[in-house]
Write a structure and sequence with these properties.
The structure holds two protein chains of two kinds. Chain A has one domain: MetI-like fold (Orthogonal Bundle), CATH 1.10.3720. Chain A is built from 15 helices and no strands. In chain A, helix 1 packs antiparallel against helix 15, helix 7 packs parallel to helix 13 and helix 12 packs antiparallel against helix 15. By secondary structure, chain B is mainly alpha-helical. Chain B contains 13 helices and no strands. The chains are: A mainly alpha, B mainly alpha. Chains A and B meet through helix 1, helix 4, helix 5, helix 6 and helix 7 of A and helix 1, helix 3, helix 4, helix 5 and helix 6 of B. Chain A: InterPro entries: MetI-like, MetI-like_sf. Chain A: It is found in: Cell membrane. Chain A: Belongs to the binding-protein-dependent transport system permease family. Chain A: Keywords: Cell membrane, Membrane, Sugar transport, Transmembrane, Transmembrane helix, Transport.
Chain lengths: 329, 276
């Protein structure tokens, strides 16, 4: 069980694995609702007032500004003076008709799908492997967190140098086994692959940790029973591990989807979306439009960004539904 | 049981585990190796696998040029931690224990808030800060960076504080403590683990932030280390030992946190499972 546990009389502590599973929403916790005294309602909202104000000022308002940006024709001057004319959905039209739209869509889908599949498969394989008992298992598993904890600029610059065409270690290794140099970051046919590789490396630890905590909640008696029935390792994985892990897998994949969809740093730092837009996704395109040029196109940039918000929210709501269903189950 | 056979098998697994970890951490090793490589060996083909002719020149450059950036990042990181904890711990308490009407909606909004791409928030903040004159300011960046951590923090605090036994709070109430006193004297001290987890992540995320930094404080007097590295790569793609030395130094908080607080990290990943 990965619940917060209280030893009798002691303080609540995280359990052995140190895991608190996804935070229960107050609405979901079985509410033995007696009507609360009015004074307590007041107290509750006094405690919530700062964060509510914060939510309004620093989430809702920027989002509103962003929506507003996407519906007006902004120039640098009007941006400062705030008198940009309202143009309705013109910016969205511009974006849809832009020749960069199709490729950006394809890159976003490919980037997200490929990263997701590899991160999940590698993460699951590692989680199953580290779930076994052997010396150093816990220590090594902890070390696997390193790529996830590093600042993205660090990972991205390290990969940039490793993938350097002339002096990179990757091409040196390929050369050693007789494969010619690959222009990882400078050739349009490889740039997307390069950023995908780097992003998979960063995402594996997350999948490993979450799936590992899922494995821990599968009762070992099931494995013993399966073993008694003569099931081999692969059969046990297929008939016990994988089905019982399905809820955790669903959450992992959905969260991975939402996060991968908005990956920006890695791509921008490694390739700036290039060469020739070959690794441009919606996230980098939006930034490119808004901040990447001398003459910023805030309106279209915000429009692209809002498309991304819609996509993220759609999958986010799916995530919430799945989570809620599981909480009820 | 066949223990001899068993031991042989676990030794084999340990070896495989070590090999996999080495493979996974190779880029980290490579960053260290390059940071110690001499300029003249940088373009060698094939590259040296060990820094046998190591130099600390890269690190000297870091200390000479990047210290102000590191200092700024430290200030921003600590500011973000303080703001995040101050905002979310009381909120977590209210959502977990006082159960206000409408609290469920608020909790839902925090889940949704985590789904919004950072780049979108950055654009909105840019538009607002431009008007308020907050661009290129440290407080402005602290506020923006805190948006990465606050929703996650509220959820962690709520989850953690729901586990505090109600009897304890009721006892305090009997003794005449109001909600604020109960929070200060009982709930907060008991939530130390949650405070640590939240602080770690708030610090780490603000320390690593690149999107807000490059949109909101780019070119200003106070830039964080992520921009320090970014400019360094842009202006100078020769001295990779210095770039990688900066990267190593910028990774230190992550390394320290991993060594000192590994179980909080694991808790944070599985709990909120949020990273921007």
């Amino acid at each position: 069980m990965n619940r917060t546990t209280h030893p009798p009389g002691g303080r609540p502590v995280l359990d052995r694995s140190g895991a608190v599973t996804a935070a229960p929403l107050p609405a979901r916790t079985p509410s033995r609702r007696r009507p609360r005294p009015r004074s307590q309602q007041w107290a509750a909202w006094a405690f919530l007032a700062p964060v509510t104000l914060y939510l309004a000022l620093f989430y809702a308002y920027p989002l509103y500004r962003n929506l507003d940006l996407s519906l007006r024709n902004y120039t640098v001057r009007s941006f400062v003076q705030g008198d940009a004319p309202f143009t309705g959905l013109k910016n969205y039209e511009t974006v849809f008709q832009d020749p960069a739209f199709g490729p950006a869509l394809v890159h976003t889908v490919v980037f997200t799908a490929v990263c997701l599949v590899f991160q999940y498969v590698i993460g699951l394989a590692l989680a199953v492997f580290f779930h076994q008992h052997f010396r150093l298992s816990a220590t090594l598993r902890a070390l696997f967190l390193v790529p996830w904890l590093l600042p993205l600029i660090v990972s991205a610059s390290t990969w940039s140098w490793m993938l350097n065409s002339d002096s990179g270690i990757v091409n040196a290794a390929l050369h050693a086994i007789g494969i010619g140099p690959v222009n990882w970051l400078t050739s349009p046919s490889w740039s997307l692959t390069s950023v995908i590789i780097a992003n998979i490396w960063i995402g594996v630890p997350f999948n490993l940790v979450v799936l590992y905590s899922g494995l821990q909640s599968i009762p070992s008696s099931l494995y013993e029973a399966a073993a008694l029935d003569g099931a081999g390792a692969w059969r046990r994985f297929r008939s016990v591990t994988f089905p019982l892990l399905r809820p955790v897998s669903a959450i992992t994949l959905l969260l991975g989807l939402v996060y991968t969809l908005k990956v920006f740093d890695i791509i921008w730092i490694m390739t700036k979306g290039g060469p020739a837009d070959s690794s441009t996704t919606f996230a980098t395109w939006s930034y490119q439009l808004g901040f990447g040029n001398l003459l910023p196109a805030f309106g279209p940039g915000a429009a692209v960004g809002n498309l991304l918000v819609v996509a993220a929210l759609v999958f986010g709501l799916v995530y919430l539904r799945v989570q809620r269903k599981q909480a009820l189950a | 049981m066949n223990s001899l056979h068993g031991r042989g098998r676990t030794r084999w697994k340990t070896a495989l585990g070590l090999a996999l970890t080495a493979l996974m951490l190779f880029p980290v090793y490579w960053m260290l190796n390059v940071s110690l490589t001499r300029d003249q060996d940088m373009r060698k083909s094939p590259p040296d696998l060990l820094p046998l002719n190591g130099t600390l020149a890269g690190y000297r450059t870091v200390l000479g040029e990047q210290l102000p950036y590191l200092g700024t990042s430290l200030v921003i990181g600590l500011g973000t931690v303080a703001l995040t904890v101050a905002l979310s711990a009381p909120a977590g308490y209210a959502l977990a224990k006082l159960r206000p009407r409408g609290g469920g909606v608020l909790g839902f909004l925090f889940l949704v808030a985590q789904m919004i791409p950072g780049i979108i928030m950055a654009m909105g903040f840019y538009a607002i800060y431009l008007q308020l004159g907050l661009l290129q300011s440290v407080p402005g960046l602290i506020v923006a960076d805190s948006t990465l951590a606050v929703p996650f923090a509220v959820l962690i605090f709520t989850a953690f504080m729901s586990g505090i036994p109600r009897e304890l709070l009721q006892a305090a109430q009997m003794d005449g403590a109001g909600p604020w006193r109960t929070f200060r004297a009982i709930v907060l001290p008991m939530s130390r683990n949650a405070v640590v987890t939240v602080s770690l992540f708030a610090f780490l995320w603000s320390w690593s932030d690149f999107v807000f930094a490059s949109t909101l404080v780019n070119g200003g007097a106070h830039e964080p280390i992520t921009l320090g590295i970014y400019h360094y790569i842009g202006n100078n793609n020769q001295e990779w030992n210095a770039i990688m030395a900066t990267a190593v130094v910028a990774s230190l908080p992550a390394a320290v946190i991993l060594v000192l607080a590994q179980r909080y990290v694991a808790a944070g990943v599985t709990a909120g499972a949020v990273k921007d």
